[in-house]
Amino acid sequence: MADKSVNGEGPEQQEKDNESSQKTVSSNGESAAESLSKRQRKKLLKQQKWEEERDLRKQRRKERKQQRRLQRQSHQEEDGEDAYSAKKRLRREVTPSSVRLVVDCSFDNLMLFKDVSKLHKQIQRCYAENRRALHPVQFYLTSLGGQLKQSMDEKDKGWVNWKDITIKTEHYGEVIAKDDLVYLTSDSPNVLEEMDETKAYVIGGLVDHNHHKGITFERAKELGISHAQLPLSSFVKMNSRKVLAVNHVFEIILAYLEKGSWQEAFCTILPQRKGAVAVDQDGTTVQEKQDSESDSDTPEQSEEKA
Q1: I want to staple 250 with a disulfide (CB 3.0 to 4.6 A). Which of 126, 170, 184, 285 is the partner?
Q2: What is the tens place of the pLDDT at every residue in 192-219?
């Protein structure tokens, strides 16, 4: 029979061994901690502190983010108030003119649909420019129907909500007193020197590429109403004919009402392709005057200038 005292250990001996083992582990841990350098201990403490303050940092980030959001909202409100105030000031500076400008849309049957579409765009431009003008005019659109109304319904359904404009299906002669009407046409022998605020000036709504030359002048004579042309020749010289698009006539009048000068209005609005050049009272351009002075110089004067 095997002897248990030789092959096994008693309970008392096992407890002593466990205590000895624990002491050894503790002693090893303490010695490991003691073996760290001062820099390593400092780094370890810093890491522990970093972990302990994790929630605090998260809370601080949240508070900073909320503070920035509140600041942005505050700035936006201030900017909005400033913009609103500026807009109100701008609106107060706008002084509507009593001049009436009428676009006569009674030529619908004389145009192809592509030309009607061009007229539609010109009318849109007139409306937009009048809305932001310093002295907006009383804008009338008469004889609206046919292809033009179709184009507006298809491409610009919002036109029914346009503001500060009078749109009529009737002819302008049924809307405005005859004595107040002045038809603007480049074929008229009369030259418009200044705007009369009691009058309604009619612009022919026609894009015809010169296929119906003089038709607006003939219409004015048939109806027995006054007519005139803009004073282009008195203030600018152009390298093309004096027939202008609807929106150009409209914008020139708006510019004249703002600047009080036909020459400034023409030079500001006329497109470059028209080659408009300002002229003096004697009808000569600045370049022509310089060329004339150069030709009249004596040889001695020419040498001195050189």
Answers
A1: 126
A2: 999 999 999 999 999 987 788 899 999 9
What whole-number distance in Å separates Cα of residue 127 and Cα of residue 247? 9
Residue 63 CA to residue 186 CA, distance in Å, equals 71
Q: What global pTM score does this model have? A: 0.64
Of the two residues 280 and 13, the one the predictor is more confident about is 280
Cα angle for residues 90, 95, 101 (degrees, 5° grid): 125
Higher pLDDT, 247 or 82: 247
Residue whose tokens read 């038809």 = 183
Section 225-246 average pLDDT: 87
Q: Give the per-residue pLDDT at 3.
A: 47
DSSP string, 6-47: HHS--HHHHHHHHHHHHHHHHHHHHHHHHHS-HHHHHHHHHH
User: What is the DSSP code (8-state) at residue 228?
Assistant: E
Please name the residues in contact with 296: beta carbons below 8 A apart, sequence gap of 6 or more: none
The three-class DSSP label of residue 240 is: coil
Give the C-alpha separation, 227 to 201, whole Å: 9
Q: Which of 191, 175, 265 is nearest to 227 (CA)?
A: 191
72 strand-pairing partners: none
User: What span, in angstroms and rounded, lies between the C-alpha atoms of 60 and 240?
Assistant: 72
Q: What pLDDT was estimated at residue 114?
A: 93
Q: Which residues does the annotation mark as catalytic?
A: 208
Residue 216 CB partners (closer than 8 Å, separation 6+): 104, 183, 185, 187, 204, 206
CATH number (3.60.20.10, 3.40.1280.30, 3.40.50.10320, 3.40.190.10) of 100-288 reads 3.40.1280.30
| Arithmetic mean of pLDDT, 98-119 | 95
